[in-house]
Structures are given as structure tokens and as C-alpha cells.
Amino acid sequence: MASVRVSYSSIACAPPSEVIASIIKASEVRNASNACSGLLGWSEWRYLQIIEGDSSRVNSIYKLIENDPRHNIEWCIEQDVKHRSIVPSLPMGYLDSSEFPEILKFHVEHDPLLLVNHLISCGAKKYPSSISAAYLSFSGEIKYI
Ligand SMILES: Cc1cc2nc3c(=O)[nH]c(=O)nc-3n(C[C@H](O)[C@H](O)[C@H](O)COP(=O)(O)O)c2cc1C
After folding, report:
1. Ligand 1 mean position to 74 CA, how many Å?
2. From CA 18, how far away is CA 29, in angstroms rounded?
3. Domain range for residue 85?
4. Residue with CA nearest ligand 1 atom 19
5. Per the CB 3.0–4.6 Å rule, which of 15, 38, 85, 105 could disulfide with 120?
6. What's 105's domain CATH number?
7. What is the Å distance from ligand 1's center to 123 Cα?
């Protein structure tokens, strides 16, 4: 089955730190039930997300995200992929900006694909395939299960 990778960047309307836990929670459930995997990165003013999976499923999730009033999408890239880079067992991986600082600062507006590749490589290091899920705890730490 054809897989796609949709990546986008958006500007947050409310501070991500206030809404990130509920976004992750809702996303994990819906992404998992659609066999999609994802990585979400955020800084104090911006989101970056990659979602991989079956084309129609990824696109229907993206439509929800696009209409979410908590952010405004800046750019979006859709790529056909032979192999998914984010393990299917990770419906919603999470990275904060400290994990991709330079790229975030310098390339976010100018080189989206470089940014996407960097986000994937951060995620791949952080979430080896043995980890089935990650979530944000109330203390702000990432927990693995
Ligand atoms: C930055 C950002 C990323 C999101 N990523 C996802 C996602 O990967 N999957 C998902 O189902 N919802 C995601 N959402 C939430 C959706 O936009 C939408 O609010 C949610 O799916 C609605 O869930 P509900 O019907 O349970 O309220 C994201 C929202 C934001 C602001």
C-alpha cells in the first residue's frame, strides 16, 4: 500500500506549552487507530509535524489539523515514501525545540525539507523501534512505554 509523509510547520495561536498535552493525547488515539505514525516538534511559537501512513488516512487527519484554530499552517509538504521513517508503533512522538535548535532557528522558513529530515533523524535517535509509545507527563517530561 502506498504510504505518504505529510510535513508541515505552523504558527501557534496559543502557547504550545498550554495545549500540547491535550494535542498529544487526542493525536495518539486517532493516529494509532488509523495506523499512522507521527512526530511533533514545538518551540514557544511554532509547531512542526510529520505524519506518515496510508495516503487517504493521513490526508483526512491532516484536514482536521489544518482546521484547528490553535494554529495557522505556514507550509505543508506531501511526499510519497517507500519506507516509513517513523515506526508505526509510535503514533505521536514528541520533541521540544531544544532537540533541534539550529535547524529550527535557521531553516524553518527557508529549507523545509532539511528541517523534515532533521526532525526524522532526531526522532529516530530518540525513539528506537523497541519503544511502542511516548507521551508527555504532567511534569513536562517525555515518558516511554
Ligand atoms: C499542532 C497540532 C498537531 C496536531 N496533530 C494531530 C495529529 O497528529 N492527529 C490528530 O488526530 N489530531 C491532531 N491534532 C488535533 C486535531 O487538530 C483535532 O483538534 C483533533 O484531532 C480533534 O480531536 P477530537 O475530535 O478528539 O476533539 C493536532 C493539533 C495541533 C494544533
Report:
1. 17
2. 20
3. 3-144
4. 68
5. 85
6. 3.30.70.100
7. 19
Global pTM? 0.81
**Rounded Cα distance, 72 and 68, in Å:** 8
CA distance 91 to 113: 21
Nearest-atom index, ligand 1, CA of 40: 3
Give 67 Cα–ligand 1 centroid separation in angstroms: 9
**Residue of the CA atom closest to atom 11 of ligand 1:** 27
Q: Strand ranges (DSSP E) for 1-145?
A: 3-12, 37-42, 46-54, 71-81, 93-96, 134-136, 142-144
Residue with cell 508527555: 136
Q: Domain tally for the chain?
A: 1
The DSSP bridge pattern shows strands 142-144 and 46-54 to be unpaired
